[in-house]
UniProtKB/TrEMBL annotation:
Pfam families xref list: ANAPC3 (PF12895)
Compositional bias ranges of the Basic and acidic residues kind: 13-25
Regions of compositional bias (Low complexity) in chain numbering: 1-12
Organism: Cymbomonas tetramitiformis
Superkingdom: Eukaryota
One record GO biological process: intraciliary anterograde transport
Annotated protein name in UniProt: Intraflagellar transport protein 56
Phylogenetic placement of the source organism: Eukaryota, Viridiplantae, Chlorophyta, Pyramimonadophyceae, Pyramimonadales
Location in the cell: Cell projection, Cilium
Chief place of localization: other
GO cellular component: ciliary basal body; ciliary base; intraciliary transport particle B
Family to which this protein belongs: Belongs to the IFT56 family.
Amino acid sequence: MIYSRSRSQASSSKRDDAPLKEKQGPKIPDLETCIQTRDYVGAVALLEFKRQASPKDVTNLEWLAYCYFHYGEHRKAVDIYLDLLKGRYGEPNPIHHTYAACCFFYLAEYKVAEEHALKGPSSKLQTRILFHVAHKFNDESKLMMYHQQLTDSTEDQLSLAAIHYLRSHFQEATDIYKRLLLETREYLALNVYVALCYCKLDYYDVSLEILAVYLQAHPESALAINLKACNHFRLYNGKAAEAEIKALEEHCKGNWTENDLVRHNLVVFRNGENALQ
């Protein structure tokens, strides 16, 4: 609306006002909305735009690194944290060592991740990073040391369950996930973790039953659909599994076979057909 219009125009009839409101374009989402809806592409676009105008805005850079990390661009995220640690934008904050450690862990640079984690302040997040690094290095003494430092917090227990799963202790992982699910039913993704454990324990029908809860809320989930297909493969045959995994085609607009895991499983479902492609 142009506020310089004359008062007579501004006080025109409601009939004339309606078209003006209809002509207004869609509201541009703000950063908070993007993050709440996990639209990290939109959040990065907003933050990069602001970065051009205010390249030394530390808060903006921290949010940008956060969004890059959650979008899977761990290298871009850690580059920002390293710049912040160099003191280019003011006094370095030690917590950025911890955040950089998270990025390096996902980049499979475990030694560097450990070094940065140890430079950061003592925290539950630091303990979880070092716990997982110890597992990657097969360092049993450190693994047990950090295990004893874990608390009953949801994040710490999820971390412990993940290590149990990675060490093929599927029943122990299942017990933790089921307990957390009873305490926090709003965490629907826990159903996927429980279903994955039951699949590993060869309880394919139970896995499908639990997985259905998550798929009802998120029918487009590639991970859940793939797990459902694997259960069908074990219970029935490759054709039944392939029929399930093709549900991704509806949600991925023709790009459903670009995922490495999906391509691998399709080869398994087809008894090795196209394995060399």
